[in-house]
Design a protein that fits this description.
Chain lengths: 258, 216
């Protein structure tokens, strides 16, 4: 039964080790007590973020279409193509991850830091309950699932809301925009989003667990601040690495595949 | 002050490095410093392999090692603050160790928890309805005691249960300990705290192991 702080002491490799151990212990989700914790973490991470999305997502979709049609004088097909590229592939997963970090990541990091400060991790271990099984596995799973769900929900609202509001406000029909969307969107867009949002979720979850549960003696505020900054860094790092793997280009073309 | 060297209990236990600490033994140990107490609880529950330095080299250390050895992994701590987890409600805290292992066992444990509280003249409804934060210190300790008792440990560690309580509540704590002893006459108990030093008459059946005060 390893103590969580041990992972933090290993630096970047600690994150890898924690991911490996969590993956090897995914079967812990079979325990009802762990599933209860998973449901609780889903509630914290998912619900809190979803409620913050509606206006922001629809507003973003409308803004992209309006910008393309009015400012860049693009036709409806081109505007929808940009909407798909921006919302489905890039901004959607990133925006959802940032909201997840700000809305729920902060709450979880603070809660974990308080748990640790109250000695509750040791209490669990004294009861024979491994925090890796009871806290880390359900948290990683919940943040990953939430990241995927929040991303798809964001995309639905951004694309659907954007198309709907644009058709009401601009000289373009709902039918025209929707037709272009279904003609241009592909399964690979969905797959791309799925992998990306899952990667973001795993990265955020790992940072929250390592910093929140395994942080050195620091105030809750410090741990929350550190968790937010490292989560953002993890998301951007994964984004760059994923772009490099898929397109052979990362960091706006600074890094290119040989 | 080191009564350990002459205590027959310690002598028996030290001998018992070859054998065991007798079944049904009740011991008490004074630990004034919180870090020492925490380290001792970690040692007894298997989280740490080393005893705190104040006991490591003494005959008491040998007794504590033997105690851990004969109890195996079946050690439960009735903690000073109940060792409650704030994110769970009180009742789920009480049954968590069993629920974690098996929900089927936990269902039966809920009835046993109610029976224990009834036997102690306490109202189980309080623990079903109130969150942990709304419990008094006495109620938190009682919840922690019931939680520890439910797992039927080979060794029950009583972590400063008498301290910071009024006389009437202390009498109730004695009733808890008596109930455990009556139900599990062959299990071992260890009281850790200052009570042994201040009010030895509260624990007449507990053989004192040693006195370790702050800074010694």
């Amino acid at each position: 039964m390893a103590a969580i702080p041990a992972y933090r002491n290993d630096g970047p490799w600690g994150y890898v080790a924690l991911l490996r151990d969590a993956a090897l212990n995914l079967s812990a989700l079979g325990r009802p007590a762990v599933r209860d914790m998973f449901a609780r973490q889903i509630q914290i991470t998912g619900e809190a973020t979803l409620s913050a999305l509606v206006i922001r997502a629809a507003g973003l979709g409308t803004l992209i279409i309006a910008y393309m049609i009015h400012i860049l004088s693009a036709d409806a097909a081109y505007a929808v193509r940009i909407l798909i590229w921006a919302v489905l592939r890039e901004i959607g997963p990133l925006f959802a991850a940032m909201l997840l970090i700000m809305r729920s990541g902060t709450m979880l990091a603070a809660e974990f830091a308080e748990m640790r400060a109250r000695g509750e991790l040791d209490r669990l271990r004294m009861m024979g309950i491994d925090p890796l099984h009871y806290l880390v596995v359900p948290t990683l799973a919940a943040v990953t699932v939430s990241s995927i769900v929040v991303t798809f929900y964001f995309q639905l609202l951004a694309v659907g809301g954007g198309i709907l509001i644009s058709s009401l406000l601009m000289d373009v029909t709902l039918h025209e925009l929707a037709e272009h969307f279904f003609a241009l969107a592909t399964l690979s867009d969905i797959l791309y989003t799925l992998i990306k949002s899952a990667g973001f979720g795993i990265g955020i979850g790992l940072v929250l667990c390592v910093q929140g549960l395994g942080g050195r003696s620091a105030s809750v505020a410090q741990i929350v601040s550190r968790s937010v900054m490292q989560s953002i860094f993890a998301v951007l790092l994964f984004n760059a690495a994923f772009a490099y793997l898929v397109f052979g280009v990362a960091l706006f073309g600074i890094v290119k595949a040989p | 002050m080191n009564p350990a060297s002459t205590s027959p209990v310690v002598a028996r236990a030290t001998d018992s490095a070859r054998g065991t600490i007798p079944l049904g033994t009740s011991l008490s140990l004074v630990a004034a410093r919180r870090p020492d107490r925490d380290a001792l609880l970690h040692f007894l529950t298997g989280l740490e392999d080393e005893l705190p330095p104040c006991w490591a080299q003494s005959p008491v250390g040998a007794t504590l090692r033997a105690l851990r050895e004969v109890s195996g992994a079946q050690v439960a701590v009735a903690a000073e603050d109940g060792a409650m987890l704030q994110w769970l409600d009180t009742w789920n805290n009480i049954v968590l160790p069993l629920y974690y292992d098996s929900p089927a066992i936990a269902a039966a444990a809920e009835h046993r928890a109610e029976a224990i509280l009834l036997a102690l003249g306490e109202n189980a409804e309080i623990f079903r309805s109130r969150p942990v934060a709304a419990l008094s210190l006495y109620q938190q300790r009682l919840a922690g005691f019931v939680k520890a008792m439910l797992v039927e440990p080979q060794l029950l560690v009583l972590d400063a249960l008498y301290e910071r309580l009024g006389a009437a509540e202390q009498r109730q704590v004695t009733a808890w300990i008596t109930l455990f002893r009556r139900r599990y006459p062959l299990r071992r108990m260890l009281y850790v705290g200052l009570t042994v030093l201040r009010d030895p008459e509260l624990l007449p059946d507990f053989a004192p192991l040693d006195v370790v005060e702050a800074g010694t």
